[in-house]
Design brief:
transmembrane helix, MrpA C-terminal/MbhD domain-containing protein
Length: 91
């Protein structure tokens, strides 16, 4: 009974984080929610008795991809800030 409840909560959390990542207008928030989705997905793989896939999901899906996406968002933010500063200086 408790296992079914845990699995149900995990499914709901996965769906909510997936929708939140897709619908977020703030890129940083979307990446953070994506990382949370990857961690929850790793937990789901553990619940499905697939620890090898869970480890790969945690390392690649949440870890490496999350870091690369956060770096990309930071570069986008700095380019946007420079463009705004250049636009303000010309007027």
């Amino acid at each position: 009974m408790v296992e079914w409840l845990l699995d149900g909560l995990l499914v709901v959390a996965l769906v909510v984080t997936a929708v939140a990542a897709l619908c977020s207008r703030d890129l940083f928030r979307a990446v953070v929610v994506f990382i949370a989705f990857g961690v929850l997905m790793a937990v789901a793989w553990v619940r499905l008795h697939a620890p090898d896939i869970a480890l790969a999901e945690a390392a690649i899906g949440a870890g490496l991809t999350g870091v690369l996406l956060l770096d990309a968002v930071s570069h986008l933010g700095s380019k946007r800030l420079r463009a705004q500063q250049q636009g303000d200086g010309r007027q």
